[in-house]
């Protein structure tokens, strides 16, 4: 943004919880249901080392943009006040993660400049005393574009709220070397959007919360069924008018089509806020083949056999208490625990039948406060999970169900990679990777691993740990998850290769499959291939579920 004053060129020339706008409304729309996997890196540089170089709004801009993008279905990496080393590291890590996503977005708010035809974003520790030093002290925009181009994302969006002017041309003996951001050489499939035109400044909008460009963009980005080109046109008009025709955003578009942030179903008048969407967030899981089972596992995991599953949508998180409450309030459904008047909890020695415990309760049997409704719902039977899916299908007009055992293992093991755990093949370590039996459960679980501390004695709020490569959270640990299939311990040994496409399990049996391990499980029982089962009416403090939706 942001004027780089003469002294800046001569002497300076030359970081999840989201904190702002927690209830951005999407007028009559909804965030897309996860058909595309979306990842964004958001950077705001405000507090430059030179106090008189500091800006007003970049951190507000970054916080608000990160919040908006998260509500629009993006996984968001938020960084503020980055020095050069951290800036480069953040971009490189973003590029690596983006290999597992379909849409990439990079947003930057802060100082920007241009030298010898290249664009640079200025880290907060930049100290440049001569023009040749610029490339060594600043972030080359080309590095961002290369990171995005090197990923598998088919759509890449770059949004830059930074100046593009040249107020210092006469100060250089050889002429305009610091001309702000210039025309980028963006690769196919990428659009680069600037807050202003060439050789112009971008208004930091002092006295307001956001820079002028970001303020208008935030307003338009949440409008349903508008393409990116429409959003940018409306933003351009708003900035142009508000700046008294002094600032005109510009874009350089090489997308292979257009992009829509928010989808609204035609004929429906849905006015909920984006941070309270109806139905679970979904992630697209590409279909593929994988070796189901493990020769190193239990008897019922053998023999390993080749399976192919079609693409499907899967719940990004385990179904939460808040989401299950929507179902109960809409249908007045009574769960098996409510009908029979009890559920089961672990008291440190054995399972205890607890009267009055149901889906509203935590693992100890206490009714959860509102602040804990982002935990996975417990004390629900397979019957209850199926009833939820049937209601959700009726409510949305889309088909929801529990995952098949094959779909679950494929998703948990990162597809064809078929990893041992959601994060890979390494055993759990001191790093916080998932919620399993750990030091926090010492005294409750005699088998707890004291070398690990995930921070939660019982369940953790969904999404507390890093997602797997598909963008799915808590596929290892937290709660066991119901699957659609009936269970048979000889199913694999009797498996026929003719059933290798989208298998749905045995045709008979009395129990239903459980997968994934939980807060009281040892690592062996949290593996992607580990199989469990329960009677479909059973419920207790370590079982929940997530949903899938077939691609239609």
UniProtKB/TrEMBL annotation:
Coiled coil: none
UniProt-listed Pfam families: FGE-sulfatase, Peptidase_C14
SUPFAM superfamilies: C-type lectin-like (SSF56436), Caspase-like (SSF52129)
Record-annotated membrane-spanning stretches: none
Caspase family p20 domain segment(s): 36-167
InterPro entries with a match to the protein in the record: Caspase-like_dom_sf, CTDL_fold, Pept_C14_caspase, Pept_C14_p20, Sulfatase_Mod_Factor_Kinase, SUMF_dom, SUMF_sf
PANTHER family: FORMYLGLYCINE-GENERATING ENZYME (PTHR23150:SF19), SULFATASE MODIFYING FACTOR 1, 2 (PTHR23150)
Name of the protein in question: Caspase family p20 domain-containing protein
Phylogenetic classification of the source organism: Bacteria, Pseudomonadati, Bacteroidota, Cytophagia, Cytophagales
